[in-house]
């Protein structure tokens, strides 16, 4: 999925997402007060940490958040139901992604990258009981990617990035659908 981050007319950012199914969506940002776009932080964090259930992996799978707008293409006949299933299935993963993207965003925004790892561990521990699944190098990699992407955004006003297909959330099976053969009478 191609994602293009650009300045919007409101002084914030907008991400234009070109999904593999031909649908093009816009995701507005609400970050006028930040130098680093928050959605860019989601992209860098979720991609580097391999989080398919986050914002971008969910969108690639067919999720549409309520603030998104269809720009072109023809959504599936069951797009709304599919989106709801994906968002429901990824509710917890989206919460974790929000917390971790917030930490990485803060580290780059404030220029204090050495705080990213302890804050990421703390954010993880507030939501999970399992051990922290990423290495310090992975967290540093997320900070580095966001630093590079935000520098490009500041210099050019646009960042083009590709969301990897292997980080697309697995869509859950539709509810209430029975599979298999019916018995004969």
Structural write-up:
The protein has 185 residues and is an alpha+beta fold. It has one domain (2-164). 43% of the residues lie in helices and 14% in strands. The protein is built from 6 helices and 5 strands; from the N terminus they run βββααβααααβ. It has helices spanning 38-48, 55-61, 79-89, 91-110, 116-125, 136-156, and strands at 2-7, 13-18, 24-28, 69-72, 158-162. It has a 5-stranded antiparallel sheet with strand order 4-3-2-1-5. Strand 1 and strand 2 form a beta hairpin. Helix 3 (79-89) packs across helix 4. The radius of gyration is 18 Å and the shape is globular. The relative contact order is 0.20. Residues 165-185 are annotated as: Disordered. Residues 176-185 have a biased composition (Basic residues).
In short:
By secondary structure, the protein is of the alpha+beta class.
Segments where pLDDT lies below 50 for 5+ residues? none
Number of domains: 1
Overall mean pLDDT:
91
Q: In this structure, how is the largest beta sheet organized? A: 5 strands, antiparallel
